[in-house]
Amino acid sequence: MLGSLLRGAIIMILTMTSVLAADLLHLHKPILCVGENSSISQLQGQGKRSPFVNKRSQRSYRSDKVFTVQGVVTKLKFGRNAGFFMQQTTATTLNLASTGIFVSTGEIANIKPDSRVCVTGFVEEYYGMTRLQVTADITILDSAADNVVDRAVDRAVRVKPTNIMVATADANFSETLERYEGMKVRLVNITDMRVTKPLYYDRRWQNYNMILSHQQINIHPNTMAFPGSIHADQHALKNKQRRLYLQLAAGRSLTSDLDYMRVNDRVSGIVGVITFSYGEFRLLVDNGLAQAQFQHGSDRQSLAPRTREHLRIASFNLLNYFNRAAGGSNNPLRQNRGATTLSALRKQETQLSNTIVALDADFIGLMEMENNGFGQYSAIRRLLDLVNQAIQDPSKHYAMIKPLKSDLHQGRYLGTGAITVAGFYRPTQLKLVNTRVIQLPIQRSMLGNAYHRPALTPTFIRVSDNHSQSKRLTISVNHFKSKGSKCVEDKQRATILKKLKRKRSNDQQSLRAWQRAKRTFAQDRQGHCAQFRTTAASVLAQALASESGSKIILGDLNSYPKEDPLLVLTDYDVARYAYYKIAHSDNNYLGTTLLDAKTKTGYGYHDPFVNQPDTGWTYSFKALGRLDYILLSPDLLSSLVTQKIWHINAAESHFVNNSRQSNSNLGLNNSRLGGAVNAGAMRNMASVFSSSDHEPLFIELQ
Question: How many Cβ atoms from other residues are within 10 Å of residue 392's Cβ?
Fold first, then answer.
């Protein structure tokens, strides 16, 4: 009896399924697209270029004939290079070909997502992306706006996201992404995408981005290889082949219910459309991170309390600490690059002071302090007071390094810029002998001027050394010129490129000359002002050579470990590195004296973090790298007992953390913090994350 009932139920289910299948087949019946002569997957093909784009001429980027295809609209794109993405819903035998494509047209007012459309146009390769350039009116075959029946049709043919899967035929991940170009896709666990740069706001393009990489985080090529070398080029290529930009369309709602995200998190669950622009694959995401899942690959860690009486020396970039919002004094440029409201300032300085207290260093060099003097209304005085108020033990209070008035610009400022460097030290551990300001070169030219911050260079004797012949310790705090704005050499190269670019359409020889110059000027990846920073390194090291005793150079040198300024400060030797030549800049002055600071030998400082490429980074741009240093003179190596980079800033999303309204939402618990801590310490520790954009680092000496 039971068997008969079971068989009857199965027959009924099969009958109902057959009826439902018939209905769905009716809904999916082919819709006439007049003149249809191809499919999207055939236009895309299996390579980087469409098989229909003429390859015989390098100056031809479109097909010889017009194609007509149909598909379902998956995403609209407004603004510059407007159009929409469409995708075929029929099966394809081209398993390695994309079934999606971008349609370039400004006529999208009547186009709606999930509509089936018929498009006629040329296939073209537009800066590496295959797309359709419309040549006739777009036909809307069905739309959810028509009637109830059509809405059912739309639901039946709506494109579902395809999980990105790496095929054995893919030589690298960029080939995988090429197979999905123009398609609606989903990142899943097996895709294995890692966060290289957490969520950030791109002011240039006014959108929110994340940078992901396949299987591992991306490290800057100049971390372990010389700029422009074959190894660096190979590393850069592999970085690019792994990289995927996530481009998100909304604001604060992007973060959804995220507690936090970190570098090396594995990301899944994100849905978007794959596109290619400016030489990079991008995933255009509409629904923010609402469906995203972040599997933390390296959880947050607190700093364990110090247990030994070693000398701890730290470096920390403050990310533009300005106290103008609290009535602070003016800096020489009368700029405010920091907080613009009192509440924002208080939040920033709470984070900064908690970070400094947690670092618990005996000396800490600080960068990006507002350069508004040393008086009652200065930024350095305000931050110093806040830090000392947070330290209960008076023996651990700090004093600030204040140069002689004669070394200050207008008797008040350390340098002429809006920001400067600073230093805090504990008088109970270090006795200040003197403070020297080392002026670094200025670049003067008809093309413009460029500056470094002066090097704040105090000399100490350790209080624990009681005898009269105590060894002197000189610590130089530095912040070299950034990689952003151009220096003389960069402007000269830009002028040459502009001339070659204007001539590139004259003939093939002119085109090749322009392309060759672009590669030559961009190949070393040191950014702008590399030669100017190299000259600064030489001037600094030569000035420190006159100091007796042990020496430390610390700060934000705006250079990766194998770039020219670091080679000058460490182990460069023209005989050992005969194939690699260090480049210095011209037009450099100290005062009115034109400099000739070229060197063929490094100055022998030791970088204790140099062999930690996977974790020894302090900043995230397109790839992770280290711009911050604590370099030791050779005599200190035997005393070195600890070196640590604390991953609390570059490892985090500043945007996500600061969109949270309370520390309770920061996703902290004892296990994540690396041990049991009390509630007060936990709150303070929570606020250190995203306190800046650079990681703090420190060393300890016996």
Answer: 7
CB 84 within 8 A of CB 73: yes
> Who wins on pLDDT, 670 or 320?
320
- Alpha carbons within 13 angstroms on the beta-carbon side of residue 50 total 33
**pLDDT for position 583:** 82
In this predicted structure, what is the pLDDT of residue 587? 84
Q: Give the pLDDT confidence of 257-295 residue by residue, as tens digits.
A: 677 899 999 999 999 999 999 999 999 998 788 888 999
Read off φ and ψ for residue 100, nearest 5 degrees. Answer: -120, 160
CA distance 143 to 499: 51
Q: Apex CA 398: angle with CA 393 and CA 401, to 5°? A: 170
**Token pair of 248 as six digits:** 């998100």
Contact 590, 518 (CB under 8 A): no
| Residues sharing a CB contact under 8 Å with residue 4, sequence separation 6 or more, in sequence order | none
For the whole prediction, is pTM greater than 0.85? yes
CB 361 within 8 A of CB 391: no
SS3 237: helix
| Neighbouring C-beta atoms of residue 391, cutoff 10 Å | 16
Q: How far is CA 408 from CA 300, 371, 438, 688, in A?
A: 41, 11, 11, 32
pLDDT at position 682, please?
40
The whole-angstrom separation of Cα 512 and Cα 515 is 5
Enter the tokens of residue 71. 């598909």
332 pLDDT band, cuts 50/70/90, is: very high
Give every CB contact of residue 582 below 8 A, 6+ residues apart in sequence. 534, 564, 567, 568, 572, 599
- Measuring CA to CA, which residue among 344, 380, 376, 348 is closest to residue 364? 380
Residue 625 CA to residue 136 CA, distance in Å, equals: 49
> Which uninterrupted H or E stretch holds 451?
strand 450-451
Question: Which ranges in 87-172 belong to alpha helices (H)?
Answer: 148-157
- How confident is the model over 41-85, as pLDDT tens digits? 999 998 889 999 976 544 568 899 999 999 999 999 998 889 999
Give the sign of the dihedral formed by CA 210, CA 214, CA 220, CA 221: negative
Measured CA angle at 272 (ends 271, 278), to 5 deg: 140
Would you say 395 and 428 are in contact if contact means Cβ atoms under 8 Å apart?
A: yes
Beta-carbon contacts of residue 494 (< 8 Å; ≥ 6 apart): 486
Assign 3-class secondary structure to 625-681.
Answer: ECCEEEEECHHHHHHEEEEEECCCCCCECHHHHHHCCCHHHCCCCCCCCCCCCCHHH
Tens digit of pLDDT for each residue in 154-173?
444 689 999 999 999 899 99
**Terminus-to-terminus CA distance in the chain, angstroms?**
87
Among 391, 361, 316, CA closest to 691:
316
**Could you give the percent of the chain with pLDDT greater than 70?**
86
Report in angstroms the alpha-carbon separations of 550 from 337, 565, 634. 36, 21, 8
- C-alpha distances out from residue 124 to 19, 175, 284, Å: 44, 19, 21
